[in-house]
Amino acid sequence: MNTAVDANLRQLLDAFAARWNLGQLSVDEQGRYRLEVDGWLEIRLFQNGGALFLEGSPGRLRPDDPGRDDWIARILRAQLRDLRDREEVLTLDPEEDQLILFRRLQAAQLTPDRLEEVIEAFITQLERWTRELSQPASSSVPTAPPLPALQLFFP
User: Fold this and answer.
1) Would 37 be classed as within a structural domain?
2) Which of 60, 116, 120, 142 is most buried as measured by Cβ atoms within 10 A of its Cβ?
3) Which range of residues forms the domain containing residue 52?
């Protein structure tokens, strides 16, 4: 890990934590910073070379849900559509049977304001996929009831 870039990351995260009154962010033995949002969403930030990664998990898949395969296909199609407009990528960790959301960006050009924008966008997507994962795979997406037939009366 590049010490200069790592020091920059530490400064950025300290500035972010100070803005949001998060206190001192600690780093684990793997060099990952953990950020807890709203008491239930966890984001891990880490650096690899000149890249900064954000990572979070919306949760584990339900192996016993009968509609699981169709649900996974629907999720992956939605993710593919989102790639046009979003930089967050949803992946599947098959060993853990868990979805992982991540985003990669260059650390060297990052400012505190830009980091805040990126984290906010990441949180929005992590919340979205967490809500999606909380729905049973076997349940269909609710659709609006059909509109009643339009009846016109002329005198």
Assistant:
1) yes
2) 116
3) 3-133
Tokens, residue 30: 């793997």
- pLDDT given at position 53: 93
Say if CB 6 and CB 47 are below 8 A apart: yes
DSSP code for 107: S
pTM for the whole thing?
0.76
CA distances from 41 to 34, 64, 66, 75, 122 (A): 10, 25, 27, 20, 11
Count the domains in the chain. 1
CATH number reported for the structural domain that contains residue 49 in this entry: 3.30.1460.10
Compute the C-alpha angle 18/19/20, nearest 5°: 90
Question: Could you read off the pLDDT of 131-142 as tens digits, one per residue?
Answer: 888 776 655 443
Residue 58 lies in a domain: yes
